[in-house]
Amino acid sequence: IFRLVANVSAAATIALGIAAFAGSTQAATIDFAAIAQNGPLGEGAIGGVNGVYTNPLNIAQGFSIDGLVITANSGNSAYMDSFSGGKRGGLGACTVINSGGQCAPSDDDNLSIGEEITISLDGGGQFIWSVTEFREDDHNLTSLSDTLMIGINGGALVQTTFGAQLGLSYVGITSITYGYGGSSADNYYIATADITTITPTSEVPEPGSLAVLSMGLLGLGLATRRRRKA
Fold it and tell me: Over the Cα atoms of the chain, what is R_g?
């Protein structure tokens, strides 16, 4: 009787395992300043097909890079700034852009008052996100105690510090929004970040597996009844 119970339990476990969550991931490190310096997009405002800047009025357009889509809030454009004095710039935003895709004035290419950017996956889905370097508007590292605003999955933006955000992993999110603000706000760029895309696949048991599971549970019930009679 005990051998029968053990065998039935194993069959049930195998069948249940087929329905378990499975997923694949893909990790990458993004250096926004290096992409602006050397990549195909170049430095400037972001928009148009494949990230090529084409229309200064189409500020709602985002761009796709390394599987990301990045958009700015209303009235602004996402912007990529390269190096200055050997120091990184990164991903920021711009309120006024000229016909060449450059900020006017040129020092408004970081995240400053009223500017926000939102990062999500091209085509949707979940990801793990961690910023590994923030830079100030002068391209130096941000002060750890200065503040910024962050919102997850379209939620309200809340105050945090650059120190608290460095290396912090947001797991299983669909979007993250960065803005200027807080009690000790400073202009900034997102210089480098790590991202891991998550592609979940949930498989259901095949009919044959369901039959095995049903038989196993039935056998377990019979075995239990026999043991009670004994």
Answer: 26
Asked whether the predicted pLDDT for residue 118 surpasses 80, the reply is yes
For 181, residues 6+ apart whose C-beta sits below 8 A from its C-beta are 147, 148, 149, 157, 159
Cross-strand pairs, 89: none
| 23 band by pLDDT with thresholds 50, 70 and 90 | low
CA angle, corner 55, sides to 138 and 39, nearest 5?
Answer: 50
Rounded to an integer, what distance in angstroms lies between the CA atom of residue 198 and that of residue 119? 15
CA distance 142 to 135: 5
Angle at 175 between CA 135 and CA 112, to 5 degrees: 35
The H or E element containing residue 189 is: strand 188-202
| Residues 193 and 173: beta-carbon distance below 8 Å | no
| Chain centre distance of CA 183 | 26
Average pLDDT, integer, range 5-32: 49
